């Protein structure tokens, strides 16, 4: 054992010493070119053009900076090139001279967005290990994975923070971890949206020099940068300047000053060339942007491309190592199988649930508190014939508790989780089936556990029948209702923001709650068909029927009328059940319907999440109609 770990350690040291990453899947170098690229969005009735027929080329082995004034279209250009925004884009994009196949390209490229969304409650080392398991699967051995993780952590100087949990990392460390996670399967193309935002000068410089090292390994690294300092600017090989959706410069970083000089715009020696070209293109020194766009032919001109770029032997050497075959020869599927992804994601989700101790305790306290309050409110009403109607109220209180308590945290939490998941899904860490299955399975034990805490208090305090089958039936119905409510929360929040989810969740719950008890008290008189249909849409209705069947179904003996009462109208259970209009209800029917609704609700959540990630035509049309209505409403407010 010792020999092998020593061997692995020596391997790590050797490979890091060589300055490149060993054991990683070989990937082809990819040169990305775009011709006549346009992008427009609809704003109300008109359309706004953001990219105006620009041209350009980003080469492998080079670190490219996209510069430009705020609102010029830098992020949009990255989004379109990475395939993150497709609707509204026009023009031609080529990879290695061939028209880009978006599906194939998404497998080759990684997009690191501006917000460093990282999975909480896991350490840097765990995050790297989980990402390695997902992305590298069984392509390499466990020992090789350790080597890869160690190498990348050293390359991105994360080794000192490897046992720190992600939420405690500094801004620079978060950014480097985001990059490290995406480097794991050696993507040939890496896009980064403002990787230096929020970092100080030293951290920014460290981050960009690391990106340069990554690019030197044969990768195409493209990042948008906001006003880089002169020191930072010096790291870039290639610069692409966007001004009002057009290309104002496209060439070597060293060519910026000579290019401007050719246009009779002299950069003062004390001035940072990056600041100067941004200021000129934003019109601070007069309207020179048109001149720049014309001189560089909106990106078509290649004259400044190789300005003063010397040959770099180490770069060529590393390029050779990665230059093994064309794009089509590489296995570009997910690194792990759906089953492996499910296990890894389930492990990660359970670990995160258990590590979030404050939230777990909060939930325990909430269930204890509610259990005690509801229990005491309906204390001993289970057998009291003078309080039969109140006991029905207790069933209703249980159903409402099982509706709101599991749903609200999901409405608040899941929209944020979707943002995180979108990043991992877009970068092809895993498939949606595995993710959704792991999500449902990981949540279920906690929901069951917390529902049991609540029921363990309320059921005995309210003196419900202490017969095992009835206890099991009551518990089963409550837990199933809780699981449906949680899935309903997931379905709502998978397509909406936190604000909209928190509005829509309770708004939908109110009719469900009303329909659950509509018509009770009318006896066995059948309600009008329309109400019968409406009632059957509420899963809470089946929950109510299930609970009544659990505590009253098949009971022959009367309830106990207290001595201080002369007469108890609801003493006879079958009369009471008849009054509720539930004489014919069957526990197994209601439970069966609830299980079907649970499955359908989960399927709906999965479908909506899929539409959020890759919308089909129907979903896109609904969105367009929604945006149209929104635009109309905001116009009528003005
Ligand atoms: N969906 C949209 N609807 C309307 N306008 C949009 C949309 N997306 C982008 N824009 C507009 O397009 C322009 C370019 O946006 P983009 O985010 O690409 O700029 P940027 O150069 O990255 O800016 P910054 O440096 O400030 O991040 C901006 O004026 C922005 O308001």
Automatic annotation (TrEMBL):
Membrane topology qualifier: Multi-pass membrane protein
Sequence intervals crossing the membrane: 358-383, 389-414, 435-456, 468-485, 497-521, 587-609
Main location: membrane
Alphabetical list of InterPro entries matching this protein: AAA+_ATPase (IPR003593), ABC2_TM (IPR013525), ABC_transporter-like_ATP-bd (IPR003439), ABC_transporter-like_CS (IPR017871), ABCG_transporters (IPR050352), P-loop_NTPase (IPR027417)
Location of this chain's protein in the cell: Membrane
Pfam family for this entry, one: ABC_tran
Alphabetical keyword list: ATP-binding, Membrane, Nucleotide-binding, Transmembrane, Transmembrane helix, Transport
Domain ABC transporter: 32-269
CDD domains: ABCG_EPDR
Family to which the UniProt record says this protein belongs: Belongs to the ABC transporter superfamily. ABCG family. Eye pigment precursor importer (TC 3.A.1.204) subfamily.
Protein name: ATP-binding cassette sub-family G member 1-like
Organism of derivation: Galleria mellonella
